[in-house]
Amino acid sequence: MSQSTELVQLLKRNLKANGLTYADVARVLSLSQASIKRMFASGHFTLERLEQICDMAHLNLSDLVRQLDESKYRITRLTEEQENELVSDLNLLLIAVCARSHWTLEDIVRVYDMTEHEAIRYLARLDRLGLIELLPGNRLRLLVARDFQWIPGGPIERFYEERIQNEFFESSFAGANEFRVFSSGMLSKESQALLCRRLHSLAGEVAAMMSEDASLPLHQRHSIGMVLAMRPWELSVFKKLQRASVVAGDSD
């Protein structure tokens, strides 16, 4: 695939992540939808139009070029065997989390109780797993894509459910830079789909912020946890009060 084709594909993915369609692009550029389709199919954009489309997707050209560079060699998911290896050794999992957060070897040894030799040994295992590339001078190159995800229901997600989930929510979320909201109600299928797109877009924005802040020294960055979730749901104690005919209808 040529670089121009890859660039167009990345642009389309960014538009989709923001819930934008060819019709939206056509309206902003004051062109017909057919013209926009031809433009994306041919990959022929003027610089001004490319900048306009990037602006719609909350990008600048340098963001798009960086994504193109990342897409050449970064992985989006591990195998189940790789995830199992991570959860089988908490020190290895810790180093993986540090590496994904763009810590240096010096940061790891300064913060955690392990020698430089031990840390390098774990980094070498991550290199073999394909999560990082251990470079000369023990520098790290992260090989995980911005849109990296753990296997749904896989070893890491099960570890999260068993060891982390309850601990994370044992908080009033009332401190500085803390936030929690729970909403329930009724939405149409169209509104549910729109909300899912917006949550997906927000998750992408967070990943972009993490990438942008990665160049800052460690003391200027702080570990955060965030959960975005939505599903058709009703409190189980209410569900038990429903008529049998209603419950049967839900399962159809």
Sketch the topology as an H/E string, one letter per element: HHHHHHHHHEEHHHH
Structural category: mainly alpha
Main pleated sheet = 2 strands, antiparallel
* SS summary, helix count: 13
Strand percentage lies at: under 5%
CATH superfamily of the largest domain: lambda repressor-like DNA-binding domains
CATH class of the largest domain: Mainly Alpha
How many distinct domains? 3
Q: How much helix is in the residues?
A: 55-70%
Q: What separation lies between the terminal Cα atoms?
A: 44 Å
Count of DSSP strands: 2
From the spread of the alpha carbons, the general shape counts as globular
Strand order of the largest sheet: 1-2
Mean pLDDT: 87
Q: Predict the CATH topology of the largest domain.
A: 434 Repressor (Amino-terminal Domain)
Q: Can you walk me through this structure?
A:
The chain has 13 helices and two strands. With 252 residues, the protein is mostly helical. It has three domains: 69 residues, lambda repressor-like DNA-binding domains (434 Repressor (Amino-terminal Domain)); 63 residues, Arc Repressor Mutant, subunit A (Orthogonal Bundle); 67 residues. The two termini are 44 Å apart.
